[in-house]
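Consider the tokenized backbone below.
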């Protein structure tokens, strides 16, 4: 018999799979961080080309009108919450592989974090850039989440109900999948 053993017997590459158990169809959607046996794995990106990649994410921290007034005025009791959140977002992007277990450590070439005080929330937008073999979506998302957590830490004495919401990817570019926009 010749050919790939897994194409002949689906239990060869997955000893935990029972004979006759359904095998995902080629090209069907699948979770990339899960192997055929269902175990978590880090995706091997060594064969992928290095390309310029960028991702932008956003989120909000819902806050009270009292917090909005403080952020627009003389600040909150712990100091300049907007500046601290911006720096925390950049630091969060840099620490993403330490926080997200299967995320690749990549060289970040740029991270920008914009923090804006709206009438009912603090709006956060982060963009991460690299030239690498995998994207920076997780870095952008982590940046927004860490900046949001920092806002909550800075305002919790005034508004214990502050809530992070709507953390989402807005756009990404680069790599095989090219450009994507929400």
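A designed sequence for it:
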């Amino acid at each position: 018999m010749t050919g790939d053993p897994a194409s002949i017997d689906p239990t060869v590459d997955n000893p935990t799979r029972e004979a006759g158990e359904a095998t995902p169809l080629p090209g069907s959607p699948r979770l990339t961080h899960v192997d055929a046996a269902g175990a978590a794995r880090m995706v091997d990106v060594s064969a992928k080309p290095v390309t310029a990649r960028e991702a932008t994410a956003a989120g909000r921290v819902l806050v009270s009108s009292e917090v909005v007034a403080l952020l627009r005025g003389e600040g909150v009791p712990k100091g300049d919450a907007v500046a601290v959140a911006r720096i925390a977002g950049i630091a969060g992007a840099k620490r993403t592989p330490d926080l997200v277990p299967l995320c690749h450590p990549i060289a970040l070439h740029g991270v920008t974090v914009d923090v804006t005080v709206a009438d009912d929330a603090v709006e956060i937008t982060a963009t991460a850039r690299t030239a690498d073999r995998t994207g920076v979506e997780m870095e952008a998302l982590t940046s927004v989440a860490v900046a949001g957590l920092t806002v909550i830490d800075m305002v919790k004495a005034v508004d214990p109900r502050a809530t992070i919401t709507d953390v989402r990817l807005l756009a990404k570019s680069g790599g095989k999948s090219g450009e994507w926009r929400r």
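Residues 137-155 form the longest helix (19 residues).
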